[in-house]
Design goal:
mainly alpha, 11% strand, 3-stranded antiparallel sheet
């Protein structure tokens, strides 16, 4: 699907495709912006929440070891902390778990393996930076849209923050397993 001829034509084709997409960063720092982008550009997308009786995954549990809680999977088996198990309705977050495994793999790659990956993904890094720019632009557009909508409904109010929320859906089972059948 991508043209031959090296990185420049491949980047150009990929960049033109990416510009037509809704782009999102899924880390905690950009969570509110991602919600705004999705609520504006893809309002049919729902945010998944866990019900109070849903299965507790290792990614949900934090341990208190000192002043700050840490995620269970980042602690290691040899460290004993005080577990804090969530109760009630909560986010259905799993990216922290998979991200920690990914970080471990990236840290432990040999120099030759890193070079092979960089050569294989020669277009990915500049494309990622373009995606970040697009996401920031889309987040600004979404916030402006919701702000204008709020002003139109309520009139101009100083310091007003628009209410930006995705539709919610809840897991109806106590386990994630049925999602993968």
């Amino acid at each position: 699907l991508d043209p031959a001829g090296g990185a420049r034509p491949r980047f150009s084709v990929a960049a033109s495709r990416l510009r037509r997409c809704t782009v999102g960063l899924i880390d905690r720092a950009h969570r509110a912006d991602l919600r705004a982008v999705l609520a504006h550009r893809a309002p049919w997308i729902r945010e998944v929440q866990m019900t109070a009786d849903a299965e507790v995954h290792v990614a949900d549990v934090t341990h208190t070891l000192g002043d700050e809680p840490v995620k269970s999977y980042g602690v290691g088996a040899h460290v004993k902390g005080i577990p804090q198990v969530p109760t009630g309705v909560r986010d259905a977050q799993r990216n922290h778990w998979y991200g920690s495994e990914s970080r471990w793999l990236r840290r432990n790659l040999s120099a030759s393996a890193r070079r092979l990956l960089e050569e294989f993904n020669d277009v990915d890094v500049p494309l990622y930076h373009l995606g970040v720019q697009l996401f920031k632009r889309q987040a600004a557009e979404a916030k402006l849209h919701f702000f204008r909508e709020a002003v139109q409904k309520q009139g101009a109010l100083a310091g007003m923050e628009p209410n930006i929320a995705l539709n919610l859906t809840f897991l109806n089972d106590s386990s994630w397993a049925y999602h993968f059948d």
